[in-house]
Every structure is written in C-alpha cells, then in structure tokens.
C-alpha cells in the first residue's frame, strides 16, 4: 500500500478545489495474468493476481451539479455539468475512464451529485498492467460510497468493463476490472469468464516470486490483431458448432472435436482454436498444480502457454520472445511467458527468490545489449483488490 500516494491525492484535491466536504478515499490495483491468455472473450478461464501497484481516487460531493476531475500525475483538470449528458472528451483521454463509469452508474439508476474527484497512481500506464481498470474500479467504489448506490461488487466490475467497452471504446474482456475489484492478498483469482464464478486460490509460492518484466515496447498491431483474433475464434466456433451444436464458444470445445473438424477449418483458424482450447486446459492444470504445491508443473504450464501464444496464436513479438528466452536460461526460473494482449507489454516469470537479483541483472543487461531498450522489472506479491480507505 502506498501511503504517500493517498496523502498526495487528498492534498492535491483540496489544494486545487479548495475546502469542502470530508473526502472519501478508495484504491484499486493493477494486475498481472499468471495464465489464461486470450481465453476471456472465448468464455474461458483466466488466472490473474492483483499487484502491489494501485490507483488512488479521492472524492467528495458538491452542493451543485458540477463535476470536476483532477489527474494529479498529469496536472490536468476538467469540469462539466451533470445537467447535460456526459460526453466523450477528445482532449483529455484520461477523463473518459471516469466519465464512462459515471455515465454507466447514471444509466443503472444511481443519482449522481456534483462532485470533485482527484486521482494518482503507481501502476505503470499503458504497460499491460491495467492502469485503466484500476482507475475505473477505484472511481466506481468511491462514487458508490458517495451515493450509497446499491450494487454488488461483481456487478460493479462488470459496469466498469462496460464503461471501457462502450464509453472509452476499448473492447476488453472482464478480467481486468474483475481482479482489480475482487483480488485478495496472497491469492490469485480463478475466473470463469462465462458465468463470472470465481475462486480465490492461495498463491503459496514458498521460495519463489512472481516477477514481471516490461519490454518497453508496444507495437501498433495490438488493436487490429486483437479484433482479428476475435473474428478468427468466432469463425472456428461456427465450423465446430455445425457438427457439435453444444459448442457455443471455444470454451465448450474438446481437443478431439477440433481435430474432427480440422479438414474444414482454415489452417490459421485451426491454430487459433488449438491455442484457446489448450490454454483453458492449462489454466485448470495450473490450479491443480498449485493446490498440490507443484510449482515446477505450474512453471511448465506457463512455458507451454507462452509457446502456444507465440506459435499458434501468434501474438508475441521478437522483444517479448527474447525476454522469455533470456529468462529461461537463468537457473531458478521455473516459468516465463508473455502476459496481456500481446505484441509487446510484459512477461510474467516464476523465479526462485535467491535468483531474482541474478535474473534482474542478466535480463536487463542482455536485453539492452540486443535491443537497445531498457527493460523494467517489477516484483510484487498478490495484493488486495479495491478498498475504501477508512
Ligand atoms: P493499461 O491499462 O495497460 O495501463 P491502457 O491504455 O488501457 O493501458 O490505459 C492507460 C490509460 O489510462 C492512460 O493513457 C490514461 O488515460 C489512463 N491512466 C491510467 N493511469 C493514469 C494516471 N495515473 N494518471 C492519468 N491517467 C491515467
Ligand atoms: Mg487497460
């Protein structure tokens, strides 16, 4: 928990907007997905954990219908009135995450007062660690507390996802908002993206650590390829469903059913489907491995996940593959894989505590030598999900 962040946000709100009602403070974390990639929009399984990096939002009511928003880190503020419909802001992109949440709360029946909201964070932004979901979720819980609007936490996470889909215009799955809302310290969260049933799984890593490496690159392919992958998966489901009507999403398909349809499937679509179907199975196997304290097996699943994302789903890139390759050469590393949507962003690694320094030194040095880019390393325990700070 970042005490300094809380103090800064509260102080900056009062300094910028002057005295007013007592503040409500809330925090929500970023996340890393341990395994289960590109399964969420196929109704499948994911296994993320909340990180020790967070967005803090401070808020208070106003007596009128004016909303004022302050991005402390960017030193930018915006103002609008609730007397008119909440609209997309072309200029201050960050404000749309808050506007979207406010708009969807309104649509769900919340009576919004005028308010002031200020926020800051230490989630690296645009890195695939989901600063956007943390911002939405922290905003949502603060405004919920302010208004007393009754909504269960999973439904509030869903509302935040819709804010990002419908208002911001980013077609993400439910994972990011869900883990940011529901995370639990020292646990990772198994989520069924179809039913939204979830289980907190103790993350007993003993002498091992979760280490995230940021590649420092984000290729522009992300969005177009993401949409294409979704279409390829849908195309696969159409072929499979013609033979097996019970298949409504790739989540429902078994490997032998895919093989039975191989001749009718475009080879690319076949590979995409193979990844998704095997990835769902790997999530389940990873959780079994954790439950048995078998970290070696867990690491193997991470490695297989990466290889599948690289070769079958084709969402990796040379920088990420290099980070993974370098990681796997370090003794004490049980698993290394890409995490997030792909084409850059981060890897997640399972590393022996005693090897972390060696890992960090070697990866940073060799990655820099080969690419000229500085990798960034984050080590985090599994943190709690969103909370109002009393
Ligand atoms: P990610 O969620 O992987 O970090 P996104 O592109 O989805 O990347 O979200 C990043 C966006 O979220 C930023 O461009 C910015 O608009 C907003 N954001 C996140 N954190 C902050 C922050 N601390 N201050 C201002 N804006 C932020
Ligand atoms: Mg995001």
From TrEMBL:
<dbReference type="InterPro" id="IPR022963">
    <property type="entry name" value="Galactokinase_bac"/>
</dbReference>
<dbReference type="InterPro" id="IPR000705">
    <property type="entry name" value="Galactokinase"/>
</dbReference>
<feature type="binding site">
    <location>
        <position position="132"/>
    </location>
    <ligand>
        <name>Mg(2+)</name>
    </ligand>
</feature>
<keyword id="KW-0547">Nucleotide-binding</keyword>
<dbReference type="InterPro" id="IPR036554">
    <property type="entry name" value="GHMP_kinase_C_sf"/>
</dbReference>
<dbReference type="Pfam" id="PF10509">
    <property type="entry name" value="GalKase_gal_bdg"/>
</dbReference>
<comment type="function">
    <text>Catalyzes the transfer of the gamma-phosphate of ATP to D-galactose to form alpha-D-galactose-1-phosphate (Gal-1-P).</text>
</comment>
<feature type="active site" description="Proton acceptor">
    <location>
        <position position="176"/>
    </location>
</feature>
<dbReference type="GO" id="GO:0000287">
    <property type="term" value="F:magnesium ion binding"/>
</dbReference>
<comment type="pathway">
    <text>Carbohydrate metabolism; galactose metabolism.</text>
</comment>
<dbReference type="InterPro" id="IPR006204">
    <property type="entry name" value="GHMP_kinase_N_dom"/>
</dbReference>
<dbReference type="InterPro" id="IPR014721">
    <property type="entry name" value="Ribsml_uS5_D2-typ_fold_subgr"/>
</dbReference>
<keyword id="KW-0299">Galactose metabolism</keyword>
<dbReference type="Pfam" id="PF00288">
    <property type="entry name" value="GHMP_kinases_N"/>
</dbReference>
<comment type="similarity">
    <text>Belongs to the GHMP kinase family. GalK subfamily.</text>
</comment>
<dbReference type="InterPro" id="IPR013750">
    <property type="entry name" value="GHMP_kinase_C_dom"/>
</dbReference>
<feature type="binding site">
    <location>
        <begin position="126"/>
        <end position="132"/>
    </location>
    <ligand>
        <name>ATP</name>
    </ligand>
</feature>
<dbReference type="Pfam" id="PF08544">
    <property type="entry name" value="GHMP_kinases_C"/>
</dbReference>
<protein>
    <recommendedName>
        <fullName>Galactokinase</fullName>
        <ecNumber>2.7.1.6</ecNumber>
    </recommendedName>
</protein>
<feature type="binding site">
    <location>
        <position position="164"/>
    </location>
    <ligand>
        <name>Mg(2+)</name>
    </ligand>
</feature>
<feature type="site" description="Transition state stabilizer">
    <location>
        <position position="31"/>
    </location>
</feature>
<keyword id="KW-0963">Cytoplasm</keyword>
<feature type="domain" description="Galactokinase N-terminal">
    <location>
        <begin position="16"/>
        <end position="61"/>
    </location>
</feature>
<feature type="binding site">
    <location>
        <begin position="37"/>
        <end position="40"/>
    </location>
    <ligand>
        <name>substrate</name>
    </ligand>
</feature>
<feature type="domain" description="GHMP kinase C-terminal">
    <location>
        <begin position="287"/>
        <end position="367"/>
    </location>
</feature>
<dbReference type="InterPro" id="IPR019741">
    <property type="entry name" value="Galactokinase_CS"/>
</dbReference>
<dbReference type="InterPro" id="IPR019539">
    <property type="entry name" value="GalKase_N"/>
</dbReference>
<dbReference type="InterPro" id="IPR006206">
    <property type="entry name" value="Mevalonate/galactokinase"/>
</dbReference>
<feature type="binding site">
    <location>
        <position position="226"/>
    </location>
    <ligand>
        <name>substrate</name>
    </ligand>
</feature>
<feature type="domain" description="GHMP kinase N-terminal">
    <location>
        <begin position="96"/>
        <end position="183"/>
    </location>
</feature>
<dbReference type="GO" id="GO:0006012">
    <property type="term" value="P:galactose metabolic process"/>
</dbReference>
<dbReference type="GO" id="GO:0005829">
    <property type="term" value="C:cytosol"/>
</dbReference>
<dbReference type="InterPro" id="IPR006203">
    <property type="entry name" value="GHMP_knse_ATP-bd_CS"/>
</dbReference>
<keyword id="KW-0460">Magnesium</keyword>
<keyword id="KW-0067">ATP-binding</keyword>
<keyword id="KW-0808">Transferase</keyword>
<dbReference type="GO" id="GO:0004335">
    <property type="term" value="F:galactokinase activity"/>
</dbReference>
<keyword id="KW-0119">Carbohydrate metabolism</keyword>
<dbReference type="InterPro" id="IPR020568">
    <property type="entry name" value="Ribosomal_Su5_D2-typ_SF"/>
</dbReference>
<keyword id="KW-0479">Metal-binding</keyword>
<dbReference type="GO" id="GO:0005524">
    <property type="term" value="F:ATP binding"/>
</dbReference>
<keyword id="KW-0418">Kinase</keyword>
């Amino acid at each position: 928990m970042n005490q300094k962040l809380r103090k800064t946000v509260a102080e900056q709100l009062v300094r910028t907007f002057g005295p007013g009602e007592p503040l409500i403070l809330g925090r929500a974390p970023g996340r890393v997905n341990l395994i289960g990639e590109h399964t969420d929009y196929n109704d499948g399984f994911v296994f993320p954990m909340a990180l020790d990096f967070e967005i803090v939002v401070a808020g208070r009511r106003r007596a009128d219908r004016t909303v004022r928003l302050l991005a402390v880190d960017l030193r930018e503020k915006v103002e609008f009135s609730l007397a008119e419909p909440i609209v997309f802001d072309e200029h201050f992109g960050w404000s749309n995450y808050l506007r979207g949440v406010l708009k969807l709360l309104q649509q769900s029946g919340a009576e919004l007062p005028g308010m002031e909201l200020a926020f800051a964070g230490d989630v690296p932004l645009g890195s695939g660690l989901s600063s956007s979901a943390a911002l939405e979720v922290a905003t949502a819980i603060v405004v919920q507390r302010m208004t007393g609007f009754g909504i269960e936490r999973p439904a509030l996470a869903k509302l935040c996802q819709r804010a990002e889909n419908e208002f911001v215009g980013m077609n993400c799955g439910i994972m990011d908002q869900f883990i940011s809302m529901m995370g639990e310290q020292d646990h990772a969260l198994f989520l069924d993206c179809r039913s939204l049933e979830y289980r907190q799984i103790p993350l007993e890593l003993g002498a091992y650590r979760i280490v995230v490496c940021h590649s420092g690159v984000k290729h522009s392919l992300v969005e177009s390829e993401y949409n294409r992958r979704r279409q390829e998966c849908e195309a696969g489901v159409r072929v499979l469903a013609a033979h097996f009507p019970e298949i409504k999403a790739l989540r429902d398909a078994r490997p032998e059913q895919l093989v039975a349809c191989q001749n009718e499937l475009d080879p690319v679509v076949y590979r995409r489907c193979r990844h998704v179907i095997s990835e769902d199975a790997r999530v389940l196997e990873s959780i079994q491995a954790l439950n048995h304290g078998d970290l070696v097996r867990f690491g193997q699943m991470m490695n297989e996940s990466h290889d599948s994302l690289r070769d079958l789903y084709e969402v990796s890139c040379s920088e990420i593959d290099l980070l993974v390759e370098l990681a796997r050469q370090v003794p004490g590393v049980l698993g290394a894989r890409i995490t997030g949507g792909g084409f850059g962003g981060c890897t997640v690694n399972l590393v022996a505590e005693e090897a972390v320094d060696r890992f960090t030194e070697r990866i940073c040095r060799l990655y820099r030598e080969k690419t000229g880019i500085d990798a960034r390393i984050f080590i985090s325990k599994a943190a709690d999900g969103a909370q109002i700070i009393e």
